[in-house]
Amino acid sequence: MKVGLFVPCYIDQFYPNVGIATLELLEKLGCNVTFPLNQTCCGQPMANSGYSNLTKGCDANFVSNFSEFDYIVAPSGSCVLHIKEHLKDTDHPEKAAQIRKQIFELCEFLTDILKINSLPASFPHRVGLHASCHGQRGLHLSSMSERNEPSFSKPGHLLSMVKGLELVQAERPDECCGFGGTFCVFEEAVSVKMGKDRIEEHAQNQVEYITGGDTSCLMHLEGILKRQQSPIRIIHIAEILNSSISN
Amino acid sequence: MITHAKEAEKFNKDEARVDWHDDTLWFVRQKRDRMAHNIPEWEQLREKASQIKNHTLSNLDQYLVQFEKQALANGVHVHWAANAAEHNQIVFQIIQKHGFRKIVKSKSMLTEECHLNEFLIGQGIEVIDTDLGERIVQLRHEPPSHIVLPAIHLKKEDVGETFHQHLGTEKGAKDPQYLTEAARQHLREKFIAADLALTGVNFAVAETGGIVVCTNEGNADMGAHLANVHIACMGIEKIIPRQADLSVFLRLLARSATGQPITTYSSHFLRPASGKEMHIVLVDNGRTEQLARTDFRNSLKCIRCAACFNTCPVYRRSGGHSYHTAVAGPIGSILAPNIDMRKYADLPFASTLCGSCSNVCPVKIDIHDQLWKWRQILSQEGHTGTAKATGMKLMSAVLSNPDIYRFAGSTGRWFLRHVPSLASNSLNPWFKQREMPEPPKESFRDWYLKNRKKPKGE
C-alpha cells in the first residue's frame, strides 16, 4: 500500500514531531510511506478568507506532489476536508478528482482503511479529547451532538487501544475552540474566549493533556495554556498513538 | 464603521457576563437537543421540511398567487410590497384610513427588518410591542438581540431597572413574577386601548389562504381579537403549500427554537370576524434577489427558529447586537449581505465555520457553506479591504512555490527564535492573550531528509 504523507505547512514548520509521529505510526502499521518533498499547503488559509481564486498555485502543486499514491494521509482533519471539498486543477481534473477521494485524515485512515483493532501504544495519563470541527462535522469522525444518530467516535476508539490512557469527556463534547483560521486574529476577543472556555472544561476534569486531530486548534489552545501558565499540555493524537516508539 | 469584531470585543470586556450569556443560550441548545433526540424520526422530519421548502421556493410564484386568491375569497385584503418602504407605507395607509392612533404588535422580525416602528412613531402613531421581551427592549430603545428571545442579553436586574423607570415598579425589584405581573397590567391597558393589531406570520398556507402565528404569550391572539383591524405582515418565503404541511413544521419549530414540543399558542387566522377587517401584507424586500442567487436561495427556507443562534459559539460569546442587523447569528450573516454587501461584509467572517448551525437547522440550510461562499463573493467584490487582499496575494505567492515556502519557513523560524519580539508584541493580535508557538530548529522536511531519505530502494 503506497501512502503519500501530507504534512500541512504549519505542522511542517512548527510541529515537526506531529509529522514524525504520523510517519512512524503508519510505517509501524505496515504502510509504504513517502513524503513528497515539494509539498507546501492545501490552500485553505486563502480560501477560507474569501480568496479561493488565489489557491490555483497550491492546488497545482498539491496535485503534482500527490497523484502517484494509493492513499494520501494527513494528521489534520481541517486540511483534509479542504482538499476533499475544494481541490481543483483545470489542467488535470481527473487527478484532482482522484486525490479528493484518496485523501484521509489519520484517524479515519486507521479505523476505516487499515481497520486496526489494537496498537502497541502506551500513554499512562489522564487525557481530554478536543473534537476539531472540520474533522468532527466535516469528516464525521464522531457522532455529532446536534444530530439524532448512534454514538461513535473514531479518535475515541483509537485512544481506547492505548495502554494506561484515561480518556475524560468534556462537558460539551464538540464545541468549537475558536481557532477558525484567520478568525483567530480578526476576531481575537471571541476566539480567545472560546479557547479559554474549552480549556476550562478540560481543566475541571483535571486532565494532564488535551489531544486532538488538528494541530491548528491545539496550537491555539497551547498559546492560551502557556499564557495562563497552566500545567496542561497539548499533544497531537498521532503522538499518543505512536507513543510506545517515541517514549 | 460598525463591525462584528469591534462590537464583540466590547461585549467581551465583561467576561462574567459573557459566561452568563453563553450558559443561558447553551441551556436552550440543550433543551433543543433533548427534544430532538427523543424523536426517532427527527432527521427524516428535517429532510421532509427541507424538501417542502425547496419545492415551495421552486414554485413560489404559483403558490403566492394561489394564496392570494384563497385569502381574497376568505374576505381578507391582500397587499404586495416590493420593499421595506412600500411595506411601511401600506401599513400606515391602513391606519390612516381609519384615523387610528394606537396599535399593538406581536413579534414580527419582518417589521424589525423594515424598521416599521420608527417609521410609524415618526408619523405620530403609538406603537406598542406586546411580546414581553420585545416590550422590554422597546422601553430601552434597543433592537432585539435574538429573534426568538429578544431580551436574552438582559438580566432580571436590568429588566427591574427598566420597569422601575418606565412602569413605576419598585427600585431594585428583580423577582420575575413581580416584574411579569407589572408588564401584564401595563400591556392589558395597551391591548384594550388599541385600535389595530399587527402580527407577524410563521406560516401562510397556499391551499387555504390562512396564516398561522406561533407565540408563547398569546399576545398575537389578544391583540387580533380585541382590535377591529388585524394586519399580518409576512415575507413571501413564509408560504407552505398545504395545511397538512403544518404537521411537519409545527413539530420542528418550537423544538428547535426553545426545546418545547410546541408553542403555547399556534393560532390559525383564516378570515376576519364579522364586522372586522383583516389585511395581509406580502413583502419581497430583497427575497426574490436572494432566490436568484443559486448558492444562497435556500437560505429562504428559514423558519426563524434561531436554533443556529443558540448553538453558535460565536453568537453566544458576542451577543446579538454585535451583528448590527435585525436578524443576527449565523442565518442573519448569510441573509444580510444580500441586502447590503458593503455594510454587512464583516458578518460572514464572524464565524469559525464550525458547522454546528447547519446541523441544528430544522430545514437543513447549509449555513456554514453559505458563509464560506459569501466570503468568496465579498472578496471578489472588493469588500474585504486592500490590506487583506495584499496579504492574501503574498501568502498565496509563498505557499504556491515550494522553494519560496521553504526559504520563508526557515527564515521566519530563525527570526522567531532569535528576535522573538518581532511576533511577541502588542501589535500582533495572536500575542495579546496567547503565547506564540515555539519555532523548532528544523522543519519536518529537514528531519525527513536526514532520517528517511535513503538511497532508492532502501
TrEMBL record, chain A:
Coiled coil: none
Residue ranges occupied by any Cysteine-rich domain in the UniProt entry: 3-84, 127-221
GO molecular function: oxidoreductase activity
Pfam families for this protein: CCG (PF02754)
GO CC term (a single one): cytosol
InterPro entries: Cys_rich_dom
Protein name (record): (Fe-S)-binding protein
UniProtKB/TrEMBL annotation, chain B:
Positions with biased composition (Basic and acidic residues): 433-449
Highest taxon, organism lineage: Bacteria
Region described as Disordered: spans on this chain: 433-458
Start and end residues of each Lactate utilization protein B C-terminal domain: 377-449
SUPFAM superfamilies per record: 4Fe-4S ferredoxins, NagB/RpiA/CoA transferase-like
Keyword annotations: 4Fe-4S, Electron transport, Iron, Iron-sulfur, Metal-binding, Repeat, Transport
UniProt cross-references to Gene3D superfamilies, sorted A to Z: Alpha-helical ferredoxin, NagB/RpiA/CoA transferase-like
One BP annotation, GO: lactate metabolic process
Keyword RNA-binding: no
Identification of the protein by name: Lactate utilization protein B
Any Pfam family the entry gives: Fer4_8
Molecular function GO terms recorded: 4 iron, 4 sulfur cluster binding
Domain named LUD: residues: 66-272
Signal peptide limits: none
Residues covered by the 4Fe-4S ferredoxin-type domain: 300-365
KW Iron-sulfur (keyword) present: yes
